[in-house]
UniProtKB/TrEMBL annotation:
<keyword id="KW-0378">Hydrolase</keyword>
<dbReference type="InterPro" id="IPR012338">
    <property type="entry name" value="Beta-lactam/transpept-like"/>
</dbReference>
<dbReference type="GO" id="GO:0008800">
    <property type="term" value="F:beta-lactamase activity"/>
</dbReference>
<dbReference type="InterPro" id="IPR001460">
    <property type="entry name" value="PCN-bd_Tpept"/>
</dbReference>
<feature type="domain" description="Penicillin-binding protein transpeptidase">
    <location>
        <begin position="32"/>
        <end position="230"/>
    </location>
</feature>
<dbReference type="Pfam" id="PF00905">
    <property type="entry name" value="Transpeptidase"/>
</dbReference>
<protein>
    <submittedName>
        <fullName>Class D beta-lactamase</fullName>
        <ecNumber>3.5.2.6</ecNumber>
    </submittedName>
</protein>
Length: 259
């Protein structure tokens, strides 16, 4: 699907892209897979899940409510983010500056090392071409990319204890990822992510919004891992992550009935 490369960014066809993939946590077997799930895209705020693991493992984050950091005007974020934030609020409300404070405290070397050891996506945290901003921008429409297939494989490794982080880091990450009730007794935990594709000049193409919802769903003693990605061919009046999440929650019981 890649058409050309400009300013370090691949350009994709203008067609809409949709993927839903669900795997069994215990075995890794595919339970449901529909759409284009092998191509890699910017992870956006879905990267808050691995960032939580890094933060807790490195001792930067302590528990569900600490540290609580105050907003600073130098962060230059939208009004909805201009408030004191703790780990639970960070995940629930997708506070970008809190993510960037975690990576700043990690530092370039430790941040890159975690991404490498996690085997996360293409592992490229170099950032935007020529800007040396990978520490705070690499996952935000920049160098780091991951496919839906890679998202579920990564999350399965996390859930099964296959990532190089402490038990505390795993437990705290599980504790702060938001819950959503689905039908037929399924409890869904997951994280959204929204952004835009890049145009030929490498700039954000607001006519091509992108939306993610990734996580896991539990019913009784069974847990499955999912990723849903949508890339639209027209502008949206809200982040595409919202309808992506809500559609997956609404459809999940019907999909799960086929397992």
């Amino acid at each position: 699907m890649t058409a050309f490369v400009s300013a370090g960014f691949p350009a994709f066809s203008a067609e809409s892209i949709h993927c839903t993939v669900i795997i069994e946590e215990a075995s890794g077997d595919a339970l449901y897979r529909k759409g284009s799930c092998a191509e890699a895209f910017f992870p956006m705020s879905t990267f808050k899940i691995p960032l939580a693991m890094m933060g807790y493992d490195a001792g930067i984050l302590q528990d569900e409510s600490s540290p609580r950091w105050d907003y600073s005007a130098e962060f230059d974020r939208p009004k909805r983010e201009q408030k004191a934030t703790d780990p639970t609020f960070w995940e629930k409300e997708s506070i970008v500056w809190y993510s960037q404070e975690i990576t700043r405290r990690l530092g370039e070397r430790r941040f890159a090392d975690y991404v490498q050891r996690f085997g996360y996506g293409n592992r490229d945290v170099s950032g935007n071409p020529g800007k040396k901003d990978g520490l705070t921008q690499s996952w935000l429409m920049s160098s780091l990319k991951i496919s839906p297939d890679e998202q579920v494989a990564f999350l399965r490794r996390f859930l099964s204890g296959g990532l190089p982080v402490s038990e505390h880091a795993s437990a705290m990450t599980l504790a702060i990822v938001p819950h959503f009730a689905a039908g037929d007794g399924w409890d869904i935990q997951g994280k959204t992510g929204s952004g835009f594709m890049r145009d030929k000049a490498g700039k954000a193409d607001r006519s091509r919004p992108l939306g993610w919802f990734v996580g896991w769903a539990t019913k009784g003693d069974r847990r499955v891992v999912f990723a849903r990605l949508n890339v639209s061919d027209r502008p949206s009046d809200q982040p595409l992550s919202i309808p992506t999440r809500e559609s997956l929650i609404a459809e999940f019981p019907g999909i799960a009935a086929r397992f």
